[in-house]
Amino acid sequence: MNSLTQKTVLVGIDWADQTHAWHVQDGQAQTAGLLQQDATAIQDWIQQLRKQYPDSQFAVAIETTKGALISALLGHDDLTLYPINPAAMASYRKAFAHGGGKNDPGDAMLLCQYLKHYIAKLRPLRTESPLTRKLAAMAADRRRLVDQRTAHCNGLKAVLKTYFPEVLKLGAARIYADFIIAFLLKYPNLAVAQKAGATRLRKLFYGIGSRAKAEQRVQLLLDATALSDDSTLIETNSMRVVALVSLIQTYNAQIRIYAAQIAEAVVEHEDYAIFKSLPGASDLTHSRMIAAMGDDRTRYEDAGSLQAATGIAPLTTQSGKQRFVSARWACTKFLRQTFQEFAGLSIAKSKWAAAYYKFQLDKGKSPQMAKRALAYKWQRIIFRCWQDRVPYDEAKYIERLKKTGSPIYQLIKA
What we know:
Blueprint: E1 8-14, E2 19-26, E3 29-36, H1 39-52, E4 57-62, H2 68-73, E5 79-83, H3 86-94, H4 104-118, H5 130-163, H6 178-186, H7 190-206, H8 211-223, H9 231-266, H10 272-276, H11 283-293, H12 303-309, E6 315-319, E7 322-326, H13 333-346, H14 351-362, H15 367-388, H16 394-403, H17 407-413
Parallel strand pairs: 1-4, 4-5
Antiparallel strand pairs: 1-2, 2-3, 6-7
């Protein structure tokens, strides 16, 4: 339902944690009220609408795509949900409240008005398959855990720099490495580590790396001089480090559990073969791409819609003779991050991707800008594979570049 008929009733819902304001418009007749965040209350309200407007279709405008309220409203054949971008609604609201004022009942009414005027341009929310929703939730939750771990790791490094900087010189690729965690839980300061002696330190390090590296680490610790002899500073910072390391250890374990669950689930998805064919992508990346694309093949009108929705396409602003091109910041950051990270992974596994990335660098682009440009190219390919339900074929794509006389093909040959 992307047009209004005589049987269409408009509904605007300004959602909140506990109580939602709603506004219903049927021609000139309008009603409004409040709805409690309760399963029974929501179902009773839907039945009330059906009784008041028999044989009608309800177009519902709401500024979210997730949550208990959305779950309760989806699945009803006579309810079509239209998610409204909060930024778009904020701009629309300013036309009626110049001072920036906001109230929930008024917002519910404005949502109705917005839906009435722009329904043809809005896309209804479709129910994804349980597996797609599961993968999307797990991928997003895992990423949140990774971001939280990063925050704790930054805090850990900051504390270590004040009293125990030798840990940062032990050669760990990541501060959350298992051997760093094991070491700091046992020896949270230099004095304790040196008191343990070479034999115990060597035993700890032997289990997690080469003997040569273990000897280097032991010697570094034994030869070190404490940065500070302030006993209070050392004691309190040691306690803080143990607390942070314990948290990071928990994050490590949970992130691994998520990764294993995602890897187990993603292979069951009907689109797995499409995303598995992409060079350089892991099962974690596969799950994030499946979440980004969804099940509904009408979700994106074309590749350009996908590029804009994920923030990969630049934003062009033109006024008179002036034209500005900037990054598109108003997007779902998780989706933009997904495609940019995949572009980076593909460089080592795809000949044309490597050639194109080098071409962008040679033009003076930064690595980040070059990866974003590569992601832009990849999204056109991914969109077509997804639409046609066929895996990506590197050889066929390179042959196509050759036939069309693409300069990228010449770069591959060089």
